[in-house]
Design a protein that fits this description.
606 residues; alpha/beta; Rossmann fold; 3 domains; nine-stranded mixed sheet; 22 helices; Polysac_CapD-like; membrane; NAD(P)-bd_dom_sf
Length: 606
Amino acid sequence: MTYKSRLYFLISLDSCIVLSTIFLSHLLFNQVSTTPTSAMLLSAVTLLICHHIFSFVYNLYKKAWEYASIGELLSIFKVISFSIFTTAIVQVIAYQQANYRVLVVTWMTHLLLIGGSRFIWRIYRDNYLKPTVNKKRTLIVGAGSAGTMVVRQLLSNPEAELLPVAFIDDNQKKQKLDIFGIPVIGGVKDIPLLSVKYKIENIVIAIPSLNKKQLNFIFKECAKTTAKTQMIPMLEDIMTGKVSVNQFRDVQVEDLLGRETIELDMTSISESITNKVVLVTGAGGSIGSEICRQISNFSPKRLVLLGHGENSIYSIEMELKESCKNKGIEFITEIADLQDYEKLLSVVDIYQPNVVYHAAAHKHVPLMERNPEEAVKNNVIGTRNIAQAASQHGVETFVMISTDKAVNPTSVMGATKRLAEMIIQHFDQISSTKFVAVRFGNVLGSRGSVIPLFKKQIQNGGPVTVTHPDMVRYFMTIPEAARLVIQAGALAKGGEIFVLDMGEPVKIVDLAINLIKLSGNSIDDIGIEFTGIRPGEKLFEELMTKDEVNEEQIYTKIYIGKTSELFIDEINYIINNFNKFDRKQLREALLELANEKMKQKKLISV
């Protein structure tokens, strides 16, 4: 029906209903004769006109009745009540009295027939226009406002692939009740048993207020079933119209391993970044690019994106220019090798940055074991070059991204990052620039993370390869790591090694199991294969050595490690002579020095 045809149909239908209610009410009280009385005619005409007037006032003819609910019923109530009230006033004016008994019955029948005529379409649609395709039997976790919204959307959408059959909610007051005809059948701990009983094929977690610990508990219960587990979208995405409530997303491993978002000290960060010039090395990498995104939120005057890979730098430049086109930020891109000191010196001289975030590094443990000279070139020499350039041109703050593998390192990558920390601390002692390092563990979704590898193995049908059943690692999401790096930079006084609270360590085999289940597969189908620890790897990572431990937080989730002994002469010796070492000798020298076992002037001979 066109809007005009629909309008004429509803006006005609309502006119018939209004006249019928007047006739039925008078008939009930034996007030109908062969010739209608003037009072009856006056009431009919008045009620008819008033009904149509108030229907337009309350948009009764514009309602989409296939989605009718309490709001539409309230509009009908207002239209009919005001129409009857007006008719009563007209009767009093014309006859000095109103026929209240007839009007009350008229109001009741009017409400019943108008409401029924509207809601019957929704009832017909919900019960007889459902598609014949098989729908997946779905369990909704959470019988609150979000859960009921999900059920309502699924029930009202004939094309939806999911059929809600039950709610799960730990609120005892809601259990054994029906919501939209869907029963609340138990609590979270009952999910495995009830999923079997109700033949559940899909589970939707519909509790936006869940913290990570609660979500983890619910997911573990869901993982005991064969059903696929999904979540409702972020509420802000629903409210802004980016997605609808029934566009569910799969549970991501980041949802289970990430921590609650911490509040940043916006004032101190703004003072260090807003209207300042910021340079980020490794700006095309996973950590560097996220630091750039986070920094852009604080409106720096200029953001210099420095990196070695032209494609990744171009990609983050285009992304930032699009997302920040109304912020007035100038984005500068520089392609440079950290080993090229003259180029770095030129870049710092031209742009005069106030803050440098040094995120560029070689991070892949097995590759650096096989190529220790490249780790030295990038992680040690490169760090010294950019630090020296920053010091020479009076940069206010220099923040280096380090790693937990720099603590008691057993790998070349960890050893070179520990030496880079020593270099940073040394420059802080001889320079007016505030030099600090920020140390954290594995980052979910980064290029060096194990998660992309696991996902690819699962896509290929398995098996998922885990080095050792007891191997554990600390994990942090990329945005969380970037935010805490920026916060640490704002707190810098000079010389600190900031250590980010990584939460509880996670067993890699548990991570693999979660990813397999999140992908909708079973452990038996994919399989897990243990391959043995690779060269340079440790079973357990540490964030601080015993000598560095300082348990006092200077900010939420941020600690300061105590400064240990620096071996700058030995580092310079290795830098100046590393091409004279063979790979085995170079690896031994790096590990001895990084673990502070090499004494002053007792260098490995080459």
